[in-house]
Amino acid sequence: MEQPRILPLVTEDNAYFWTSGQHGELHILRCRSCGHYIHEYSPLCPRCRGREIAPEAVSGRAVVASFTINHQPWLPGMQVPYVYAIVELAEQEGLRLTTNIVNCDPGEVAIGDPVTVAFQHYDDVWLPVFERVGP
Q: 3-state SS string over 28-53?
């Protein structure tokens, strides 16, 4: 049974993020002037105020910065429990995404766990989720 989801609205400003998974890559905005990664979308760099911003593939490696285990089925048919997490990408300190940790027992997840990106495809969206690396 497919897990029910409320999907994001794909727009011209965020399509790079929600659709790059079709090629197995996670794309994050990066400033061409100073190299700073930016997530969520912004038309200019918060570090140098540069406007040369473009999506760039990242490694997909991260660590679990914070998480909670949800036991509430918010939608009919939703399978619980599941892990709702914030992961910090390897490319830059403070570069964080809100996501799910999948394909493991929720009780096995811990802060600091290394994880890697995977994608769940729904309609025109490839949701970036993360899987634990190693045992």
A: EEEECCCCCEECCCCCCCCCCCCCCE
